[in-house]
Amino acid sequence: MWYTHLVHAHARGGLGEIPENTNNTNTNINTCIIKVRDLSKIYRIGKERVTALDDVNIEIKRGEVCCILGVSGSGKSTLLNMLAGLEKPTKGDITIDRYKISAASEKKLAVFRQKYIGFVFQSYNLIPTLTAEENVALPLVFRRIWKRKRMRMSRAILKLVGLGDRLKHRPTQMSGGQQQRVGIARAFVSKPAVVFADEPTGNLDSKTTAEVMELMVKMAKENNLTLVIVTHERDIAQYADRIIQLKDGKVTDDYRIERTDTDNSGENANE
Ligand code: ADP
Ligand code: MG
């Protein structure tokens, strides 16, 4: 489970040479937060070799909402897992906010994830025995924030995502869309530098998908957080500033989208 990394890091403690998360101090949105250089990943199963990623080069700016688009098997999850420091590259380098994660030890990576990374999963990955407010408060445990403050922060963000009346509900007592809102609240509550989302709407109907996507983008924009969403659905891409297309482990297209503000449906058309 994802949180075992957190527990491990907490037990070992110590932030070592990992630099402070500069998300809240660095206001220059044009700085590059994620740098991927000559990245390849080859899986070996017996004598078989699968090239999941083949010489990928990407730079993502702070505050950018970026969509990695590609069919099943194109290498999207492999890329996201390496960006989040969950898997090691076969070749190449990944730097996040000046920290070279591809060279870091497992111990350091676990601490790095606590400080820098939020994750939203397709299957929500909430802890079934915990209530919504306890699930959201969990990442704050590893930031050494007092329980009363953790719960206050958790309740505040759950209200923001429209779940102020579901604080004491457990995952099985909520719909898929509600569970994913809890997942989003948990990913954003500690204001990480980057939030990664792997097929976050894969289990949701189209109406709920739109609500969840709008919510995630709003949370990212309001906090100037970088959001990287992986999906095989082209419709999801409309929410992004930028689309990176993957095919057979290679970047085949990379372009920015001019966002028209659909929220104001024409009211501010000239702005
Ligand atoms: P996507 O997320 O785009 O569907 P993945 O990144 O999961 O694609 O997989 C890319 C390729 O790498 C696929 O061919 C897949 O079979 C292979 N692959 C992924 N993970 C592993 C693994 N742990 N061991 C072996 N092959 C893998
Ligand atoms: Mg995948």
Kindly identify the CATH topology: Rossmann fold
Largest sheet: 6 strands, mixed
Give the overall silhouette.
globular
Query: Could you say how many structural domains there are in total?
Result: 1
Mean of pLDDT: 88
**Individual helix count:** 7
Radius of gyration: 18 Å
Strand arrangement within the widest β-sheet reads 6-7-8-3-9-10
DSSP, total strands: 10
In CATH, the architecture is: 3-Layer(aba) Sandwich
What fraction of the residues are assigned to beta strands by DSSP?
25-35%
Terminal CA distance? 45 Å
Top-tier CATH class: Alpha Beta
Give every kind of bound small molecule, once each: adenosine-5'-diphosphate, magnesium ion
CATH homologous superfamily label = P-loop containing nucleotide triphosphate hydrolases
Percent of residues in helices? 25-40%
SSE series: HEEEHEEHEHHHEHEEE
Low-confidence stretches: 1-16, 264-271
Q: Give the helix/strand class.
A: alpha/beta
Quick summary of this structure?
The chain has 271 residues and is an alpha/beta fold.
Chain-wise SSE layout:
Blueprint: H1 3-12, E1 32-45, E2 48-61, E3 65-69, H2 76-83, E4 91-96, E5 99-100, H3 106-116, E6 117-120, H4 132-141, H5 147-160, H6 176-188, E7 194-198, H7 206-222, E8 226-231, E9 242-247, E10 250-256
Parallel strand pairs: 3-8, 3-9, 6-7, 7-8
Antiparallel strand pairs: 1-2, 1-4, 4-5, 9-10
Helix pairs in contact: 1-3, 4-5, 4-6, 5-6, 6-7
